[in-house]
Amino acid sequence: MKQLLLICSLALSSLPAAAQEKSPPFGLGDLAPLAENFRELFEGFADDMMPLMEQLADKMSDLNAYEAPEVLPNGDILIRKKPKADDGPDAEPKVNPDGSIDL
Fold first, then answer.
1. What confidence score (pLDDT) does residue 73 get?
2. pLDDT at res. 29
3. Do 77 and 70 form a contact (C-beta atoms < 8 A)?
4. How far is residue 72's CA from residue 89's CA, in Å, rounded to a whole number?
5. Residues forming beta bridges with residue 78, ordered by sequence position
6. Per-residue pLDDT tens digits for 2-40
7. Which residues, other chains included, contact 59 with Cβ-Cβ below 8 Å and sequence gap of 6+?
8. What UniProt keywords apply to this chain's record, in alphabetical order (predicted)?
9. Which helix (H) or strand (E) holds 5?
10. How many CA atoms lie within 13 Å of 101's alpha carbon, on the beta-carbon side?
11. Is residue 54 part of a domain?
12. Residue 57: which H helix or E strand, with range?
């Protein structure tokens, strides 16, 4: 490993100075205005899409009321509503018309 590191460092140090100072054709400074334009574009897109995304989130919460889709042999797709869960027993006992109480 040390030998490989030594060989690489010697190879880099032997390069001509002009090759080491040569910059890439496009520097990061050249891309700054383009990056700024894309940032503004995506911020505008996000601002335009926010109300739609909120509506979609509301609709997604409604999906829990439905069962999984079922494809029939003829190609029809059924999406049934889930039956409402029973809330359980009432906190207060029911009073019958004759005055008796069901427990």
1. 95
2. 63
3. yes
4. 37
5. 70
6. 555 556 565 656 555 544 455 555 556 677 788 888 888
7. none
8. Signal
9. helix 2-13
10. 4
11. yes
12. helix 28-62
For residue 46, the SS3 value is: helix
Of 87, 88, 67, 86, whose CA–CA distance to 78 is shortest? Answer: 67
Q: How far is CA 65 from CA 2, 27, 32, 69, 95, in A?
A: 65, 55, 49, 12, 33
> What is the amino acid identity at position 63?
L
State residue 12's pLDDT score.
59
Residue 56, SS3?
helix
pLDDT of the residue at 70? 94
* Residue 24 counted as domain residue: no
Residue 102 contacts residue 90 (beta carbons within 8 Å)? no
Q: How many domains does the chain have?
A: 1
Q: How much is the pLDDT for 2?
A: 57
| pLDDT band (50, 70, 90) for residue 87 | low
50 inside domain: yes
Read off the pLDDT of residues 66-85 as tens digits, 9 standing for 90 and up. 889 999 999 999 999 888 76
| Residue 69 domain-assigned (yes or no) | yes
